[in-house]
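hiii, so i know i said id send this last week but things got crazy w the move. better late than never?? heres the sequnce for the chain we talked about at the cafe, plus the structure i predicted for it. fair warning i was half asleep when i ran it
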Amino acid sequence: MLAAVGGALFAWLGAPLAWMLGAMFFTTAASLAGARLEMSLGLRKFMLAVLGIMLGSAFRPEIAGQIVRWLPSLAVMTVFIALITSLSYTYFRKIAGLDRVTAYFSSAPGGLSEMNAVGESMGGNGAIISLVHATRILVVVGTIPVYFRYIAGLDIPALPPGLDGFLEPMDIIMLAGCAVIGVPLANRLSIPAGALVGPMLLSAALHISGLTSAAPPGPIVAIAQIVIGAGIGCRFTGLSLAAVWRIILLAAGSGLMMVIAATAAGFIAAPLIGGEPRPLVLALAPGGLAEMSLIALSIGSGTAYISFMHIMRIILVVIVFPGIYRAFFDDRR
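okay and structure toks below
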């Protein structure tokens, strides 16, 4: 209820991406004030599946031939991740004073749960790793839409455009099937962010094949935004601001540094690879896959491209970075 009130207030105020940002800020403030908020994992997975279906609807038959054109962007992103992780690692070691394992897995812009699990298994402080990544996502999601609305001057609606179409019964069956089949299939294959990526891949396949052009209706997407925003805020539940303010402040500094670096890299690299700065900035910004894809949908800027880039970012970080740590940093070898 609190998240819905926050989303409705932000929508009434005309804020960009209002339903998600309002829910996020209200639940974060309540959590740090001492409220014991909980997010239903089942509800969050369901809404991630809805979002995945919606993201898949951004893929069109002509997209298949464009993936080769995205390879230069993928190269830019790989270099950017290596540089920003190195810079963030130095920041957490020298300024924050974190131990080597905790600093390393706090710096890699991968999935929160994946970085926490791997970092903790290697002797890092799982609580700090989770807090740093939650704060990073909060900062990225809280600043990128504001930048595009108030600095870049783009009109960012509360909901992504084009979600008012009528769904035929067959469309409903196909889209629902993407969730029913996609989530367990992704989990069985151990795909990162499977609740979102599985339905998205199946939805993308349906839309690329031309079998459907439907997307989930606007009210359901608004509810999904509220749940995703609340999920970010609930990660701070049980934390006292007085006890963790230093880590949050340092993590916010790292997150802001990443946003600035992504913006600068996007505007510098885009002309070199023959692309547009705005989609590349969104592709490089190290927020969560669900959150960044929602921003891309609302801005109407290369949603399929941005979703593809963030999936590749998470796969790269989750698969490659633990191996790099074991090879070069782990004293237990």
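btw The first helix runs from residue 2 to 13. thought thatd interest u
miss u guys!!
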